[in-house]
Amino acid sequence: MPMASSPNPTNNERPSNTNTDPITTTPVFITTESLRSILTHQTLIDHFQSSLPTVSPILQSPIRQNYAVSPSSSLLLMPSWSTSPSLPYIGIKLVTYFPQNSSLNLPGVHANYVLFSSTSGQTLASMDATELTLYRTSCVSGLASKYLAKIDSQVLVMVGAGAMAPHLIKAHLSARPSLRKVIIWNRTEEKARNLAEKMTESDGFQGVSFESNGCLEEIVGLGDIVSCATNSETPLVKGEKLKAGAHLDLVGSFKHSMKECDDEAIRRGRVFVDNEAALVEAGELLGAFQRGVIRKDDVGGILVQLITGEKVGRCNAEEVTVFKSVGSAVVDILAAQLVYETFLGN
């Protein structure tokens, strides 16, 4: 797989000895700037596609631990480790969630990823997991759209204009190069306009137009791919508005009270998930199960089954597909592996 190049790290980033002898291994700190120079959405999508079928059986990933550190704030721990020398790592993502930070003009989520050797237990690296999560989450959606979106998809509707939105746009453009138009909606119209302008000025998107629109119901029906990254607790995407052949990508919800689409979208679509945790965490699916809209048995499969061909993705140009992701420590450790090994190789 091609690796992205990275600028030479500073002395305090580069390990003093990259010998495989565990006694001399020195931990590295990979800056956010280095991480951004190493990762591209295309290389990470390719890495997930080639690695997930192989590593899924050898990775242990307990359910994430969530601790309330105050009435509104949380600490989350997401560990994962390999049982095979072919992937000699233990990894853990440490996340703090402080939603009140908006009043301080600070992000609500901060995270760090620490990678250890699974043979010696030594610390190998630490890196910005906030940025890592933006890449891995968006690339999971991009990979899913390779199997579930129409091969000739032309229009992407982006619902939400937060930190995840530009990553999702880039991931879908990487996975579906036929896309020619991106329409962005956000509750705050100015944020959607600003993102459209920023994406227009970005390099690497020749032939793609970016625009914003303040009426979601007006534009949902235009989307060959509709990607959602919001914290909404009321359905934003109405299933009756989706066009025939649309692919709906749901990223935002991660607890029972959150939902980005209504029951009709779930009823109309063939539903796939990134992993089985989505069946017990995602508000859209839980509500649909409870109301008898669909059964758990109706879910078409998980992402790795699409990759291996065990489950068939899109069957024809007219069907509606839905992909719901909630994230997992498996893709965290794979993304960290790619960053770490590429960093050492430069």
From TrEMBL:
An example Gene Ontology molecular-function term: oxidoreductase activity
Name of the protein this chain belongs to: Delta(1)-pyrroline-2-carboxylate reductase
Similarity-based family: Belongs to the ornithine cyclodeaminase/mu-crystallin family.
Positions of region (Disordered): 1-25
Gene3D superfamilies (alphabetical): NAD(P)-binding Rossmann-like Domain (3.40.50.720), ornithine cyclodeaminase, domain 1 (3.30.1780.10)
Domain of life of the organism encoding this protein: Eukaryota
InterPro entries in the cross-refs: NAD(P)-bd_dom_sf, ODC_Mu_crystall, ODC_N
Cellular component, GO, one term: cytoplasm
GO BP term (any one): carboxylic acid metabolic process
